[in-house]
Design a protein that fits this description.
496 residues, 11 helices, globular
Length: 496
């Protein structure tokens, strides 16, 4: 991805190209049916653009230093659109919010307005988002379907009673044909209902994500983002390393492309949380399902260790395929010769799951999706980093990247490369915050990445460090007896 950069056009890391920034009013110019447009490029001090696999739409904000009082002059009412495009030099991929060549964004709020000491000058934020995000608050989905879930999602995105979107939609096909009637809910709610039930046509997984990037909308599973084919893992698009900037190439010139992939700062948001994973069904769970049509109960236990090798993860095996190692939960004797996945009743799920409403029609069956989806989603909460990088519009949420972090160990500690064997490795890009400053001519981005596997497999062990490793003193003390001692004096036998 970074190899596509032309170093002759990129002068320095964090450089960017931006055209005019225009606000387009809902009002016409002198009633001639041409909307009023005002250039605000000289007023904008900062541009923020947000994308995430956990958010369905792009959004952002403009920070204006305004001495013209546009709020009154235009006026700004929350019914305007904003047009501009921004990209890294020499890269065709970027954010194009222009009417003729892209998809404009729409103003929906004015926030944090305050007056400065200079008379007649104020600063405020203009909040913007995709058109589809606004439509979600205005329409309801009421439509019957009898098809696969990926076709249902496509219809919601394209339909006039849904998003009515003209953007590209990247869809991973789903398996199965189902009956579904949208119960007069917003498009977001309909998509959430369907995403939880979706299963990949090709991969062994459950649950999909719906999100927007600069390319368009995406309806994909985690495993689709991790696997290139059903047998080979997807390659990374970039390699970020925590090191000093100012690298030189073979000719002694500054290596701008290398500097673009330097981690300027990072924060470990999460690094293992067994309590959280146990409570949320990552390791094990038990689903008790009742089918009213067949009048049957089913009990299904989920075992993380048995399921791990059936799916792709952020880390792969030596042949680039699936692996049974490198999981976030090593095979450890946690208590009385049991693994952490041997406690399904730690998470109990009750479902009324009528798979067949009538003799010849199929409904959704949560027994094959719920536990797998819950474990897979929450496993990505185990390892999360926040990286500060030089801005680059070629990176998108859903991309896989390699991250190299130092181990901070002594030089003679058997780790000559000083690489953290567990926190380094392949990560999924989950959230990107682009922060573009026309004032300082600088583009940086905060990138949140996550993973559900470790680069170097944890050691397995059979010893028990849990059972019988505490003081055997299980006395039960009557509080009233202790209270009486305060009056009658201490009794050596009771006070021990």
């Amino acid at each position: 991805m970074y190899a596509k950069i032309n170093p002759n056009e990129l002068n320095r890391p964090g450089d960017f190209t931006i055209n005019d920034i225009r606000l387009v009013s809902y009002q016409s110019v002198d009633g001639d049916n041409v909307p009023k447009k005002i250039s605000i490029k000289t007023l904008v001090t900062e541009i923020n653009i947000y994308e995430s696999i956990f958010n369905k739409h792009l959004s952002g904000s403009l920070i204006l230093l305004d001495a013209q009082n546009l709020l009154m002059k235009l006026p700004i009412t929350g019914f305007e659109r904003v047009e501009f495009s921004v990209h890294t030099p020499s890269m065709s991929k970027g954010f194009d919010f222009r009417e003729k060549t892209g998809h404009p964004m729409y103003i929906y709020a004015v926030k944090n307005r305050k007056n400065l000491e200079q008379q007649g000058t104020m600063v405020y934020q203009l909040m913007f988002c995709s058109k589809e995000m606004i439509r979600n608050e205005r329409v309801r989905c009421v439509k019957p379907y009898q098809t696969n879930i990926s076709e249902m999602i496509t219809d919601i995105v394209r339909d006039k009673d849904g998003f009515n979107s003209q953007k590209d939609l990247f869809v991973e096909p789903t398996r199965g044909v189902f009956d579904f009637v949208c119960p007069r809910v917003r498009p977001h709610e309909a998509i959430d209902l369907l995403s939880k039930k979706a299963q990949s046509e090709k991969h062994h997984n459950a649950g999909y994500m719906f999100y927007e990037t600069s390319y368009g909308y995406n309806f994909k599973s985690y495993e689709s983002l991790l696997a290139g084919t059903s047998a080979v893992a997807r390659p990374v698009v970039a390699r970020y390393e925590y090191k000093t900037m100012g690298q030189r190439d073979e000719k002694g010139n500054k290596d701008v492309i290398s500097d673009m992939q330097v981690i300027m700062d990072y924060k470990v948001i999460e690094q293992t949380n067994t309590l959280k994973n146990s409570r949320n069904g990552v390791y094990a769970s038990r689903l008790i399902s009742h089918d009213a049509f067949s009048k049957k109960f089913d009990v299904i236990d989920f075992d993380y260790h048995k399921e791990y090798e059936k799916s792709f993860h952020t880390e792969h095996g030596q042949d680039g395929g699936k692996t049974e190692y490198k999981s976030i939960a090593p095979m450890v004797n946690v208590e009385e010769q049991k693994f952490v996945s041997d406690y399904p009743e730690g998470v109990l799920i009750y479902k009324s799951d009528t798979s067949n409403k009538f003799e010849n029609t199929a409904g959704f069956d949560s027994k094959v999706t719920h536990q797998k989806r819950m474990s897979q989603k929450m496993a990505f909460e185990s390892f999360k980093l926040d990286l500060t990088l030089n801005g680059f519009t070629g990176l998108s949420c859903g991309d896989l990247v390699s991250v190299v972090l130092p181990a901070f160990t002594p030089a003679d500690d058997g780790n000559p490369l000083d690489i953290d064997p567990y926190m380094s490795g392949r990560y999924l890009v989950s959230t990107i915050h682009h922060e573009i400053s026309p004032t300082f001519n600088k583009h940086i981005m905060n990138v949140e990445v996550c993973k559900d596997a470790v680069r170097t497999a944890y050691p397995d062990e059979v010893i028990d460090t849990f059972t019988g490793k505490e003081k055997e003193d299980r006395g039960v003390i009557n509080q009233y007896t202790i209270d009486e001692l305060l009056v009658d004096g201490p009794n050596p036998k009771i006070m021990g």
